[in-house]
Write a sequence for this structure.
């Protein structure tokens, strides 16, 4: 089945930009979605269809997808952005969704 | 504002059946634009999709769980449910119900989630 690869952790200082990657074979040909999960809470959709933001998600969150890498970029990082971030797509070969292993974002 | 809430037993003995219900409030489960999924997360691990159901009752399960998982819909009570048979310690996880949505093709994503419920498999 399709495998999504994320770095275990990313660290960034407040006010800087965080970029979290999600790697997969020809992932640029698929739609990628991103979730934020804070400790003890349910995941929240922050980006869908590569680069669209749900209502209520700040413009600081943006997505991109090309070639073998999709990315979630968080601009002007705040302490409240500290969370696990997970990518997801629909594997048309198996007919079910696949999640990445998640990346823990630490705000220094 | 549509909300989802999981309920059910938090402790299940090995070899027995895990049963959970997801109650949808603030909207109808009979929306043709959505499906309704169960997703679980073992402690300290990543998310694993288990299956989904349409309001019509059509289901699709994760192949590796297909023989043990059943998802049903109860439109009259705006609920859908999950049963997992023959559970082991490996089924210990936080179980989430979620609404699935797609804008094109089969590119489903999960736009609303319940708060999750911890199910522990232990004797």
């Amino acid at each position: 089945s399709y495998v999504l690869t994320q770095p275990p952790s990313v660290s960034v200082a407040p006010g800087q930009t965080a970029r979290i990657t999600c790697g997969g074979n020809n992932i640029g040909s698929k739609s990628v979605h991103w979730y934020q999960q804070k400790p003890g809470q349910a995941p929240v959709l922050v980006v869908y269809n590569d680069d669209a933001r749900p209502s209520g998600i700040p413009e600081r969150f943006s997505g991109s997808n090309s070639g073998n890498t999709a990315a979630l970029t968080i601009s002007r990082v705040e302490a409240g952005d500290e969370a696990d971030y997970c990518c997801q797509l629909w594997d048309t070969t198996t007919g079910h969704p696949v999640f990445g292993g998640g990346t823990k974002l630490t705000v220094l | 504002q549509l909300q989802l809430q999981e309920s059910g037993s938090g402790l299940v003995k090995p070899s027995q059946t895990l049963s959970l219900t997801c109650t949808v409030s603030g909207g109808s489960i009979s929306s043709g634009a959505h499906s309704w999924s169960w997703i679980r997360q073992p402690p300290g691990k990543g998310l694993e999709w288990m299956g989904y159901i349409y309001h019509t009752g059509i289901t699709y399960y994760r192949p590796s769980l297909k023989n043990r998982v059943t998802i049903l819909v109860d439109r009259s009570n705006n609920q859908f449910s999950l049963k997992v048979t023959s559970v082991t310690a490996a089924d210990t996880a936080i179980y989430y119900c979620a609404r699935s949505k797609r804008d094109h093709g089969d590119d489903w994503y999960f736009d609303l989630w319940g708060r999750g419920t911890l199910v522990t498999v232990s004797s």
Notes: The two ends of chain B are 39 Å apart (CA to CA). Chain B is about 0% helix and 55% strand. The mean pLDDT of chain B is 94.
